[in-house]
Amino acid sequence: MSDKKTSPLVWVGIGCGVLFVGGIAFFAFIFFVVFASMRSTAPYQDSVAFAKVHPRVILALGAPVEPGWFVSGNINTSGQSGSADIDIPLKGSKQNGSLHVVGTKEGGRWTYSRMIVTPDKGEPIDLLPPAEAGG
To answer: Helices H, strands E: what count in the chain?
Structure first.
């Protein structure tokens, strides 16, 4: 019977492999948490719900209109106030596009100053009603 000992280099390799896989898992977890938290906000939810049923968006992108995963931009809230400036990828049966949303939160209520869908091909579609003239 031979009594073989495992080389220290093997243990170093195993340790590095475990650290590498653990690091990837950590970054994947952070990635998932960040995108999931952005997707749960009112600006994201409100704008995607509106875009999914907007007739011009459906005509341009093709039904069904669904959001993609890679939301970019920022959403900041502090109690009853906040701001949002985000871009959401959209996918349709005809083509893709993106949804740009700018909003502010005052007194716990979100209002949007910009909500525009830009198809990959075609003109941008403003989802907000025109501002009323006069004052």
So the answer is: 3, 6
